[in-house]
Amino acid sequence: MSLHSVCTRFHIALELIGARWSGALLHMIFKGKHRYAELKAAIPGLNDTMLARRLRELEAAGLIERRVLDTSPVRVEYHLTEMGEELRPVLDELVVWAHKWIPLPEDKAEAS
Amino acid sequence: MSLHSVCTRFHIALELIGARWSGALLHMIFKGKHRYAELKAAIPGLNDTMLARRLRELEAAGLIERRVLDTSPVRVEYHLTEMGEELRPVLDELVVWAHKWIPLPEDKAEAS
């Protein structure tokens, strides 16, 4: 397994979770938000077009799965797959790092 | 510390390392490549304009520092700061995950 092939995989992975909003969506699903409206409400600035697109991309990449619950009315939920679940250590490490190193933007600082 | 402020920091951090090529650059600097030409050669597809821009952004964000060595001719090197170094666990976890879950693109598969 050459260095180059490990790097290629790493770069693909980073672009997958680094795409604007994708990481935030994964983070929210990890936190138990599974419905479209919940996800939209939890991420300020994320519009419907981008939310739908990112959900499709994450599903196509195999990180999440779309479940249609046989209720009335029908309910749709987004859940992590095994592949998605195994990103937890990456996201957890990033939360620790971000909490230590990333200052809150002023407008957010008062609200925190 | 509200959930929202932790998420805000996390989202900023993810966009910082998730920006196209930034993660790859950090990864290469972690691997001991410190010179402009080395970085350019190590990341296929990365052009001069984008390389210069990402290096400036990573420097402005405090993840790397630009060192001018008093040699003849003068040498310029890019090194991780303490803030950058502490991303190592994040990148290491991502390499493990990528190695398990991300298939190599066909054109790269033969070369690996």
UniProtKB/TrEMBL annotation, chains A, B:
The keyword Transcription regulation applies. Residues 7-106 form the HTH hxlR-type domain. The keyword Mitochondrion does not apply. Keywords: DNA-binding, Transcription, Transcription regulation. PROSITE patterns: HTH_HXLR. It holds the Pfam family HxlR. InterPro entries: HTH_HxlR. PANTHER family: HTH-TYPE TRANSCRIPTIONAL REGULATOR YODB, TRANSCRIPTIONAL REGULATOR, MARR FAMILY. This is Winged helix-turn-helix transcriptional regulator.
